[in-house]
Design goal:
By secondary structure, the protein is mainly alpha-helical. The protein is 77% helix and 3% strand. Helix 2 runs antiparallel to helix 3 (57-92).
């Protein structure tokens, strides 16, 4: 192919990757809306009245799938710039198999999200069988939500939060300093970058547990906050200000 032809195709990978990411996000949200429309908590048997039955293997599989979808729906918008940048750098360095390599990069993210979903599933299982969840799959005791808000707010001020946030706000630096060739290298890069992303906002994501895994307003609010921290010029200041707000909110709930 001539140089003019290569230039003409410049940016084509952006359109393809962005379209596929958008399709994946749409599928996640379609499933969430379907679940919210049904609004039938997993493991809830109806026999004249609603009785919370212990989770069985099938229930745990459904709960795990639901958590994977929730985490993917929340994290895909924040991960999209890194995925697009990875595909572009791969083309500029004239590596082969741009799209399979980018797929492996995304699968690295998905692996980390599945690990987090597994932890959330185990927590949900324990809480459900202990009778601590209500019909909306939220933690019934309000103190748990208040403590979660305080913990998330305090974490917003920690060095670990801001080191991870630095990485999330500078995806080009990550891609260039952690570059690995080949499909397996792309997977390892995806895992590493996803670990930084989760390190940045894992306690924010944990707020979904007391709020309820199908609480769409909370999920949308957290998506907006995560994107604002990553994309706005004052992301670090926003994180600190949000931390103060979360601590104040949680404290007000603990001591009304």
């Amino acid at each position: 192919m001539s140089r003019a032809g290569r230039i003409g195709r410049s940016g084509s990978e952006r359109t393809v990757v962005l379209t596929l990411l958008g399709l994946l996000a749409a599928l996640c949200w379609a499933y969430l809306l379907y679940r919210v429309g049904r609004m039938a908590p997993i493991g809830l048997a109806t026999a004249g009245k609603k009785i919370a039955a212990p989770y069985h293997a099938g229930d745990l599989v459904l709960l795990f799938a639901l958590w994977v979808v929730v985490i993917a729906a929340m994290m895909l918008p924040a991960a999209a710039p890194s995925v697009l940048l990875y595909a572009r750098v791969k083309r500029l360095w004239r590596e082969r198999w741009i799209y399979p390599g980018t797929l492996m990069f995304v699968l690295g993210y998905l692996f980390v999200w599945c690990c987090c979903a597994l932890v959330a599933t185990l927590a949900g299982w324990i809480l459900h069988d202990a009778g601590a969840l209500d019909e909306s799959m939220a933690i019934a005791h309000p103190t748990a939500g208040a403590l979660a808000l305080v913990a998330a707010g305090v974490y917003q001020w920690t060095p670990a939060k801001h080191v991870c946030l630095d990485n999330c706000r500078t995806p080009l630096a990550f891609v260039l300093t952690h570059w690995r060739r080949g499909a397996w290298g792309g997977f390892r890069m995806g895992v590493t970058d996803a670990r930084y992303c989760m390190g940045c906002c894992w306690l924010l994501l944990a707020l979904v547990l007391p709020a309820g895994v199908l609480n769409l307003p909370v999920i949308c609010g957290l998506i907006a906050l995560i994107l604002a921290e990553k994309l706005l010029p004052g992301g670090h200041l926003l994180a600190c200000a949000t931390g103060l707000g979360l601590v104040a909110w949680g404290t007000a709930l603990l001591f009304p």
